[in-house]
């Protein structure tokens, strides 16, 4: 019998594979059909996302890097006014290439004890565990592979120290505003009064700048989206024909919602895990939302979910902000 600890050659457990299959089949029955963007991140997806971060159109990484590299000293001073020493939990840490600058400063001033990177990608956690201690001597890294909330709960069982939770890279934008409120409220319930939360938000700006960021000329974002179909083919015994789906991003400047779709180029049947899904010609498959915020919306989200907005750090163009909230 397989157990939850038995890993496939793909690097996911049987339990994770079953959840993946269930979410894919359910999402494909919804109207409109959808896939969950958290499944973008297998080893190929991780590598493609790291390429996206270097695309000239993808301003988000450069803006947040400017904040974390240029203002790490001020951010740490501000953090220490609220809590002198804490454990750092990072939700969806990715390659931690931006958080690196904050980690370095926190270590320098002795403000951080242990770094708990959380990520649904096992590959990412293994990479961080291996590479970070060499780059930042003295850093204790305890990687947690799994879903945000489950792993935050696991971190709380390991340590009762005050916490700084970081959720960077505009990952909050992968929720609709209603889902973001639900998520932040649940986060607040997992934390103690005085704990800190730092979130990266992408701000509203010229609509074309936003749309271009999700439609890079080199086609990396397109490949990133199509890779999820390939992952389904490989891990769930699917037969998506990738050449029969086209990448189609949209941005609505009224709501701030940037959405990515894959559009079926013809009427076609796809088989996944023994089930058949029929696509009409030109039918959109919703892949991901990347919500853009105003400063007022950010403050309202913090207040409504039980946090006290403490400080906002901006890049020089004011295209992106990392905000610091404290649990009330
Ligand atoms: C957009 S990337 C951002 C990475 C990093 N925070 C940054 O700013 O560069 C999102 C990361 O979150 C992880 N992720 C997505 N959904 C997740 C979930 N539900 N639970 C845990 N990790 C998740 C992905 O594997 C990926 O590494």
Question: Describe it for me?
Answer:
- The protein is an alpha/beta fold and 328 residues long.
- It folds into 2 domains: 14-56 and 209-291; 71-203 and 294-327, Vaccinia Virus protein VP39 (Rossmann fold), CATH 3.40.50.150.
- 41% of the residues lie in helices and 24% in strands.
- The protein has 11 helices and 13 strands.
- It has helices spanning 14-29, 43-53, 59-70, 72-82, 99-109, 122-135, 148-158, 177-190, 207-213, 220-235, 295-304, and strands at residues 86-91, 112-119, 140-141, 144-145, 163-167, 196-202, 245-252, 257-264, 268-272, 275-279, 284-291, 307-314, 320-327.
- The strands form 3 sheets. Strands 1, 2, 3, 4, 5, 6, 12 and 13 form an 8-stranded mixed sheet that branches. Strands 7-8-11 form a 3-stranded antiparallel sheet.
- Helix 5 (99-109) links the parallel strand 1 and strand 2 (112-119).
- Helix 2 (43-53) packs antiparallel against helix 10 (220-235) and helix 4 packs across helix 5 (99-109).
- The N and C termini lie far apart (47 Å).
- Residues 1-9 have low confidence and may be disordered.
- The structure holds S-adenosylmethionine (SAM).
- S-adenosylmethionine binds next to strand 2.
């Amino acid at each position: 019998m397989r157990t939850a600890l038995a890993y496939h050659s793909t690097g996911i457990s049987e339990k994770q594979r079953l959840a993946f299959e269930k979410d894919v089949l359910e999402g494909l029955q919804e109207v409109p059909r959808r896939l969950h963007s958290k499944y973008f991140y297998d080893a190929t997806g991780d590598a493609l996302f790291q390429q996206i971060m270097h695309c000239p159109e993808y301003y988000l990484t450069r803006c947040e890097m400017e904040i974390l590299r240029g203002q790490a000293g001020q951010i740490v001073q501000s953090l220490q006014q609220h809590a002198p020493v804490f454990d750092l939990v990072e939700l969806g840490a990715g390659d931690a290439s931006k958080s690196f600058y904050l980690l370095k400063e926190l270590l320098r001033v002795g403000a951080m004890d242990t770094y708990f990177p959380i990520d649904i990608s096992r590959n990412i956690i293994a990479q961080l565990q291996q590479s970070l201690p060499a780059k930042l001597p003295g850093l204790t890294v305890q990687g947690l592979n799994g879903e945000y909330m489950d792993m935050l709960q696991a971190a709380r069982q390991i340590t009762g120290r005050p916490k700084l939770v970081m959720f960077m890279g505009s990952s909050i934008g992968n929720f609709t505003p209603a889902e973001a409120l639900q998520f932040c409220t649940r986060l607040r319930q997992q934390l103690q009064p005085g704990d800190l939360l730092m979130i990266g938000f992408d701000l509203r700006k010229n609509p074309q700048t936003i749309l271009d960021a999700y439609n890079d000329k080199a086609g990396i974002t397109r490949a990133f989206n199509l890779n999820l179909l390939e992952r389904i083919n490989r891990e769930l015994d699917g037969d998506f024909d990738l050449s029969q789906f086209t990448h189609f991003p949209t941005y609505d400047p009224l709501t701030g919602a940037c959405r990515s779709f894959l559009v079926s180029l013809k009427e076609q049947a796809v088989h996944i895990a023994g089930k058949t899904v029929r696509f009409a010609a030109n039918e959109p498959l919703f892949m991901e939302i990347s919500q853009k915020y105003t400063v007022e919306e950010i403050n309202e989200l913090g207040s409504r979910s039980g946090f006290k907005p403490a400080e906002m750090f901006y890049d020089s163009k004011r295209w992106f902000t990392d905000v610091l909230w404290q649990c009330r």
